Amino acid sequence: MDRGVDALPELVKRLGDKDAGVRFWAAKGLANLGPKAKPAVDALKGVLTDPSGDVRVAAAQALCRAGRVDLGLPALVDQLEHGELWVRVAAADAIDYLGEAARPAIPALRRAVADTSRENRYIRRVLSHTLRVCGAEAD
Question: How many CA atoms lie within 13 A of 53 on its CB side?
Fold first, then answer.
């Protein structure tokens, strides 16, 4: 018995919960399933427009880990411009985790790295690493 996969229907159900925290942890649970979360792709796509930036990042990360970087990466890139620092940090970390699969986002990563504000220091470091991994140094 694979407890993670067995939980998939419940995790998908919880993506629709009224509490953003529950939706966030459901998406994180699906992300942890990796490719085994492929049956949840349609539900995760629906959560990419969630009112919570944290939920959107977790859903995008789950899509990427389920093998749908084509769907998840653009959503993560969008969150690099979110008004809340911690949402931007989570998006940067999720993008960095992708390694070379983040290559299509190089122009957006360069824009994010160009923000030299003090608040953006960590994001700049993380995404500079991502750019190096992709063979594209920051300008």
Answer: 17
Tens digits of residue pLDDT in 116-129: 999 999 999 999 99
**Amino acid at the residue 35:** P
Look up the CATH number of domain 3-102. 1.25.10.10
Among candidate residues 109, 92, 33, 29, the one with its CA nearest the CA of residue 57: 92
Query: pLDDT digits over 75-92, tens only?
Result: 999 999 999 999 999 999
Contact 102, 136 (CB under 8 A): no
CB-side exposure of 1: number of CA atoms within 13 Å?
3
Closest CA to 79 of 54, 114, 43: 54
> In whole angstroms, what is the distance from residue 89 CA to residue 64 CA?
17
Quick one: what percent of the chain has pLDDT higher than 90? Answer: 92
Q: Which two three-digit tokens encode residue 100?
A: 């070379």
CA pseudo-torsion sign 68, 70, 71, 73 = positive
User: How is the chain split into domains, by residue range?
Assistant: 3-102
